[in-house]
Amino acid sequence: MNPSSNTQGSSGSGGVMIEARSLSKFYGEFAATRDVSFTVPAGQVCAFLGPNGAGKSTTMKMLTGFLAPSQGEAFIAGRAISTDRIAASERLGYLPENGPLYVEMTPEGLLNYIGEVRGLTGSLLANRLSWVADKCSLGEVWRKPISKLSRGFRQRVGMAHAMLHDPDVLILDEPTSGLDPNQVHGVRELIRDLSKTKTILLSTHILQEVRAVCDRVILISNGRIVFDGPTDNLGDNEVEMEKAFRKLTTAA
To answer: What is the pTM of this model?
Structure first.
């Protein structure tokens, strides 16, 4: 079968959980991304790196259905985002960079509302609320208006939102943005824990974070993938990784 005519992605049952198939996004003559293709298998933590404006967030938005590609297709757990978005979204948790929140609500109120929208009720909803409140360390601000929270706490509310329905796939755009060192450590520990049962695509500018939690690196520059391989192949330490990053992104 011609892959381009296939409306079903690779199997989401223990196989490929995230697939970008020739994703391109054009704004007039400008190509934000061009022919971006990769797969992420079940259970892998994959870093998605690149300089500012390289196409990282654009690609993540296309993978999650927040932005329609000009060409190509995205799949989550084998479900095509363009034709089966509801089924795909049931398997997906997404933390966008600077994601919007209903700031007049409290974390408790917002997450309870989101849970109900996703069909969670009764003890299941109560248990999931308790779990994300604990994992994201939201106890001290649980009933405070989000408008009064720091950027770090807002980021943690966004993380809780992404994880509330216990998805198989997490796509996280700069998850430690705005967090202090202790909070960053907590998020990294959480990602390690989640990686035991989930597939994670993680965008970050922090190479130390990549070495700490990621199995693999995909590097994008000028809208194209310029590196895809195990984290260690980009360098044995942060200094080597930074040199490789600069070389690959300035040559692209």
So the answer is: 0.89
133 and 243 inside one domain: no
Query: Domain boundary residue among 151, 166, 181?
Result: 166
Residue after which a domain boundary falls, among 121, 145, 166: 166
pLDDT in tens, 60-99: 999 999 999 999 999 999 999 999 999 999 999 999 987 7
Render pLDDT for 146-169 as a digit per residue (tens, 0 to 9).
Answer: 999 988 889 889 999 999 999 999
Select the more confidently predicted residue: 236 or 220: 220
What number of CA atoms fall less than 13 Å from residue 70's CA on the CB side?
14
Whole-angstrom Cα distance, residue 50 to residue 48? 7
139 three-state secondary structure: helix
| Residue 96 lies inside a defined structural domain of this protein | no
Q: Residue 216 sits in which domain range?
A: 3-91+168-251
Total tally of structural domains belonging to the chain = 2
85 in a structural domain: yes
- 13: amino acid identity, one letter: S
Residue 36 bridge partners (DSSP): 23
Task: Show the DSSP H helices in the chain as ranges.
Answer: 56-64, 85-90, 107-117, 122-135, 151-163, 181-194, 207-213, 238-251
Write down the mean pLDDT value for the chain. Answer: 90
Find residue 45's DSSP bridge partners: 200
- Residue 138: helix, strand or coil by DSSP? coil
